[in-house]
Amino acid sequence: MTTAVLGGGLSGLSAGYYLLRRFGKPLTIYEASPRVGGWVRTENRKDRNFIFESGPRTIRPVGLPGANTLELVEELQLEVTPIRRSHVAARNRMLFAKGQLCMLPNSPKGLFGVLPPFTKPLYKAILRDLVTSSKKAKLEDESIYSFAERRFGKEIADYAISPMICGICAGDAREISVRFLMEGLFEKEQKYGGVLKGSLMARFKDKQVDSKKEGLFAQEQPKLYARALEEKWAMYGLQGGLEILPKAMRKYLGERDVSVQLSSECRNLTFSPSGVRMTLREADVPVEHVISSLPAHKLAPLVKQQHPSLSAQLLDIPYVDVLVVNMQFPGKLLKQQGFGLLVPPVEKLPILGVIFDSCCFEMGENTVLTVMMGGHWFDQWFGDRPSPKQILDLATSQVQRILQIREEPKFSRVHTLHKCIPQYTVGHKRRVEGIRNYIKTYKLPLSLCGAAYDGVGINDVILSARRQVEAMPSS
Ligand SMILES: Cc1cc2nc3c(=O)[nH]c(=O)nc-3n(C[C@H](O)[C@H](O)[C@H](O)COP(=O)(O)OP(=O)(O)OC[C@H]3O[C@@H](n4cnc5c(N)ncnc54)[C@H](O)[C@@H]3O)c2cc1C
Ligand SMILES: C=Cc1c2[nH]c(c1C)Cc1[nH]c(c(CCC(=O)O)c1C)Cc1[nH]c(c(C)c1CCC(=O)O)Cc1[nH]c(c(C)c1C=C)C2
């Protein structure tokens, strides 16, 4: 079968990897830009011993999706930089709220004291879940904010859940589906009438799903995953930065005669009983099957001519813009060590959070920080399109205020990431089912993977590619 993959981000490259493994060639990946990696982009300043990441920097080695990524990392023989659970970057996460930097609890003991910005011990929120019955009619979906407020109270919704949502999808918890982050908890509540009750009952009643049962790994779990469990990794990066991963995937595929065509934007897809005609800038290419890893809003115009309703459904998945400002300061300037800080949206500040890169990874005598801004609130703060200098000045002044750093950054970068993170708003699961049902009903030789559908993290987009390849007919 001749197959084409659209997009050379992590999901498209993964689709190429799994297609090669399952079907062999011929196989081509078409990428619109002149590089692979999509949102994964590293600037490695070897000369000064620091790294700027404008996209992701860490991966979680958790569960089946985490094990799957580690299998790939192992196959590509990449050098990992583990961050163990005992590491300061794994233990310390902060909030900037009510005018102060607040450490989030990192052990069960922390649930019993009153830790700012919270005004009550956190165990009370858990008790509230135990005594609150699920009297409401059974819900198909709701916002993660309303779920958290219902079960744990407004304070938890504002100061724990809302910033966490910012730190994953730069979104507003009042709009994001509870299924995005808490599918398991939501289902337990709906089934057993409470999150805690549900978790306990499920231990006895529900079957455990493990990677072997799902048949993902032929023999046993990947060695690197076993190492991550044994060494208690909380997360990991890659030596040289995360862009090493897409670069290594491209090399791996190239060495096996898979063509990765850069600067090759697909402009239209025409479906017929014999397959798909892909319109590129200079040629039309017929193939039997297409796997699209494109953001939903980029795939929509390609199918609009023949399938306007599919196109409209794809456009119903919203995206947000994020501003990323990387900064380097000579010397060790941070008074508090940790992964970073998040700013709860109720604080109404112009930043979403700051990552302490030089705490996560060894960067010599440098302080490296990444400030993230915009997201759901992009237009509110940046609607009048400030210049890169104005954005840098704003980020610097926030960092100086919050972290009491007096210096100006020596090196910096400002990136505007347009429509970089999809928002799994209430009803997302239904929308994705609708899109996939349409494709099935019209028997389109099209599979969809990537961040738009089945999870926004690196593990999710790699696994989504694998699942789509496995679901393809064998001839
Ligand atoms: C700021 C930020 C921080 C993040 N941090 C983390 C993190 O810490 N941990 C984590 O796990 N995840 C993180 N993520 C998420 C992670 O980066 C994404 O899940 C992942 O990169 C998405 O990969 P993808 O292949 O699905 O999509 P993309 O990276 O969007 O790739 C799609 C590709 O398709 C190409 N394309 C578009 N249109 C066309 C066309 N018409 N024809 C051909 N090609 C086309 C694009 O150029 C692009 O290369 C972060 C994301 C962002 C934005
Ligand atoms: C402030 C903006 C953002 C920060 N990171 C991201 C945004 C939009 C993007 C992002 N971060 C994570 C993921 C992957 C989720 C997954 O499925 O693995 C994505 C897409 C990881 C992550 N980072 C934080 C949390 C709570 C998570 C979820 C998983 C985990 O618990 O490790 C915290 C966090 N993110 C940012 C900051 C400043 C921060 C906290 C201190 C930036």
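^ LM7OVKF4 complex. The two ends are 7 Å apart (CA to CA). The chain has a mean pLDDT of 92.
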